[in-house]
Amino acid sequence: MNAILESQTATNDKLSQRFIELDPSGYFLIFLDQQSGLICAEHYSNNINKQGLATDPETGEPLPCHGSLKRQPTACFKAHTAKELCIKIFEVPQTQWITKLDHAAYLGREFVRAEIALASGTQYIQD
Which Pfam families does this one have (predicted)? Predict the structure, then answer.
């Protein structure tokens, strides 16, 4: 790994640890469908409690950060490119899927990372 890439990786790893407020409109789980050549983003609703934790709107229980949940997405978006996916979510919404600018910026970065992984045939892991 060259020095520039090492520096970029270190910077991004550090920034990934910062605190950000959760978006009350929900969250996205991003994954690839390599066989179909698609980037997929499932939207899930949530509520934010007084402690700032995302909670299940049906049960009021905090949502775990790790492990699997048995929830149904409120919407599923699929596209061949990051730009196409951003347009579907941000520019043609019938519902406001995003209410925080930092959440929108995060999704844009993640969609580009997913597109690169899709094009290169490598694994994508959401940050």
Answer: PterinBD-DUF4346
| Boundaries of every domain in the chain | 24-46+73-120
Kindly report the pTM of this predicted structure.
0.84
Q: Return d(Cα 46, Cα 60) in angstroms, integer.
A: 9
Cα angle at 123 between 76 and 85, to 5 degrees? 30
Q: β-pairing, 54-55 with 47-48?
A: antiparallel
Rg (C-alpha) for the chain, rounded Å, is: 16
Neighbours of 18 (CB within 10 A): 7
pLDDT digits (tens, 9 = 90+) for 35-58: 999 999 999 988 888 888 888 788
User: Which residue in 32, 50, 51, 28 sits closest to 40, CA to CA?
Assistant: 32
